[in-house]
Amino acid sequence: MKSAYLLIDYVYDFIDDKGVLSLSERGQSIQPNIIKIIKKIKEDEGILYLCNDNHEKDSYTYSPESKLFPLHCNREGSKLYIDQDVFNNIKPNKTMNISKTMYSAFNGTMLNLTLKQQQIEELVLMGVCTDICVLHTAIDAYNLGYKITVISDCCCGLTQEGHQFALNHFKNTLGARIVTSKEWL
């Protein structure tokens, strides 16, 4: 079965202490696990999709999110929060950027079409927030027929309770496989 990795919203505004909606230490603590997985992707020649929120001030006012969250993930805030050196030596076309404006990485993007063109059947999910964007992406993935694996210690929820709720939902409602980075490696 052909798999792809999705790293969802591991960006400045959600991870850095100065980010608009920062998870701070909880979000930063999963970075070593994410880096280990990225190194595995390099070895296995897997495909990594960087699915990042990207909001512009003018259009964000029309988003349903604007009623719940302040403007976030604009130009600076949507930059990946991992040192670019981690991506060295990944072959061309093995890292793809998906710019999203809604919770799900599928909503309004070319992600599904691209995955289908590459004959991907399973998605391995990592990122933040487990209980928001990772959750909505997983639900859409399930509805589109993908098998789902979630690397639990490569995800962080808005709260620990929300994180655990989402992991239970992935497993019990979407039939996802939940693993740790150690189990995956």
Give a nutshell description of this structure.
This protein has 185 residues and is an alpha/beta fold.
Q: What distinguishing features does this structure have?
A:
single chain, 185 residues, alpha/beta, Rossmann fold, 8 helices, 6 strands, globular
* CATH class division: Alpha Beta
Architecture, CATH level 2? 3-Layer(aba) Sandwich
Give the H and E element order: EHHHEHEHEHEHEH
Q: What is the multimeric organization of the chains shown?
A: single chain
Radius of gyration: 15 Å
How many strands, what sense, and barrel or not for the largest sheet?
A: 6 strands, parallel
How many helices in DSSP terms? 8
Structural class: alpha/beta
CATH topology: Rossmann fold
Globular, elongated, flat, extended or rod-shaped: what is the shape? globular
Total number of domains:
1
In spatial order, strands of the major sheet run: 3-2-1-4-5-6
Relative strand content: 15-25%
CATH superfamily: Isochorismatase-like
Spell out the blueprint of helices and strands.
Blueprint: E1 3-8, H1 12-15, H2 24-28, H3 31-44, E2 47-53, H4 57-60, E3 95-100, H5 111-117, E4 122-128, H6 130-143, E5 147-156, H7 160-174, E6 177-179, H8 181-184
Parallel strand pairs: 1-2, 1-4, 2-3, 4-5, 5-6
Helix pairs in contact: 6-7
